[in-house]
Design brief:
transmembrane helix, membrane, transmembrane, 24 strands, about 450 residues
């Protein structure tokens, strides 16, 4: 903790008046000196004694719980000391975190100054230049008027990107009652604010197709036949019992005893290296940097896109009752059905890199211009999987055969296009329910 004692602006003004009074006393006599200089000297000495005797404070910082990036939370500061005294607290924030006025009138600044307690911000040297397309990272502070030894004070923070963001250290500025002298103490209290990647909702049809990925992978290990049931979207075509379906109004599929085992899906995610990623506009970003004084590199943007897609896919699976093993360039993590925290903790700090070579049911690749999701032999743009996503050029998927050729697919209007490798798959088109607005009615082997 390093103390720093100096006059305030008001103190400098009083010193200037005192210097002028000394000059006047030299010309007009000691009466002028007694009337002005002595009261100024007494006030300054009293101010120095008051702030010097202020005890060293300690700070306890309580952060909001981890949440998605862009979510505003409340930081609570408790300042403790043997004696109470008023002070201004400046809590240092990283460039990717925006501080906002709270109940105590906190404000966020760049390298310039703010009016503490006013809830206003004066941009300093670290402020972003609007419309320039680039930003310069600068120190940011949440400035709060507080009473050391009094009640806790709060301010709002909004992390603009996923990750672990270090908040602190804090500066506590004690001022005398006249506002002439201030003493700054640096309190080395640091805490990590965790922000998860954004999680987007996938359409119901896509969720069913993802669950089918685990069934098709485990088909080779199935045991004996167990019974028949009605077809539901996402069931593998190989399980359709055509003879029984011909006698009924709808399709029926065969069930095997191994299907009673819990579903488990493996997901691999990574980024394409050696490419320049065009800045992707986010809801919290105007397209140039992060909009808060920090610059995001191309690799960071690709890693963020990968984390967002992986979080959306994996959380959709665990919510639907499937276990997930996620492998990324930063390692591997497993989550049982209904568990999400392990996945989010991993994706909050995951770094970009090539997709792990292990085979997986679902593969996510963040490229130069888009993020693709591959599963069950199909490749889709991530945006088309999102609930309410747009279909690109009338199609949502393209089916890739094992030899690299493209197999038949169903266009958004329900018609089959391209060569179809499986006669049974072609015959089943008329039985399949109409594809939804996302065009997820693709047929592939």
């Amino acid at each position: 903790m390093t103390p720093n004692l100096r006059p305030t602006r008001r103190g400098y003004a009083v010193l200037a008046v005192g210097a002028g009074a000394l000059a006047a006393g030299a010309v007009f006599g000691p009466r002028t000196l007694d009337a002005v200089v002595l009261p100024i000297a007494v006030a300054l000495v009293a101010a120095v004694v008051q702030v010097w005797r202020a005890p060293e404070p300690s700070i306890e910082r309580r952060l909001p719980p981890a949440a998605e990036s862009g979510t505003t939370g409340v930081v609570e500061l408790t300042l403790d000391a043997p004696e109470s005294y008023p002070a201004t607290v400046r809590d240092r924030l990283p460039a990717d975190v925006r501080g906002e006025p709270g109940d105590n009138g906190a404000a966020t600044a760049g390298d310039g100054a703010v009016t503490a307690g006013s809830g206003t911000t004066t941009a300093g040297d670290g402020a972003a230049t609007a419309g320039s397309g680039t930003t310069t990272a600068g120190d940011r502070e949440a400035v709060i008027e507080a009473t050391v030894g009094g009640d806790a004070v709060t301010y709002d923070v909004t992390p603009k990107r996923r990750g672990e963001h270090e908040i602190g250290p804090a500066s506590v500025v004690a001022t005398d009652v006249l506002g002439l002298v201030e003493r700054t103490r640096e309190v080395d209290a640091r805490d990590a604010l965790v922000a998860f990647p954004r999680v987007r909702s996938l359409s119901g049809a896509v969720r069913a197709d993802l669950r089918a990925a685990s069934r098709s992978r485990s088909a080779a290990g199935r045991d004996e036949f167990d019974g028949l049931r009605e077809y539901v979207r996402g069931d593998a075509l190989r399980d359709v019992h055509w003879k029984s379906s011909a006698k009924r109004d709808g399709l029926v599929v065969r069930e095997f005893t191994a299907d009673a085992d819990p579903e488990h899906v493996t997901v691999a995610a990574g980024t394409v290296t050696g490419e320049t990623r065009v800045g992707v506009e986010r809801p919290e970003d105007d397209g140039g940097g992060t909009g808060d004084g920090s610059a995001r590199t191309n690799d960071d943007g690709a890693a963020d896109a990968m984390a967002e897609a992986a979080a959306s896919v994996c959380l959709s699976l665990v919510r639907d009752g499937a276990g997930v093993t996620l492998t990324t360039p930063s390692g591997s993590v497993e989550a049982a059905a209904g568990r999400r925290r392990e996945l989010l903790d991993h994706l909050a700090v995951v770094e970009g890199g090539p997709v792990p070579r292990e085979s997986a049911d679902v593969e996510i690749v963040a490229g130069a211009d888009s993020t693709t999701v591959r599963f069950d032999g199909r490749e889709r743009d991530f945006e088309t999987l999102v609930d309410g996503g747009d279909v690109v050029e009338g199609r949502a998927t393209r089916s890739v055969a094992a030899d690299g050729g493209v197999t038949g697919s169903v266009a958004a209007d329900g018609g089959a296009t391209g060569p179809v490798a499986d006669p049974e798959a072609a015959a089943s088109v008329e039985h399949r329910e109409a594809p939804d607005e996302h065009g997820s009615g693709a047929v592939s082997r």
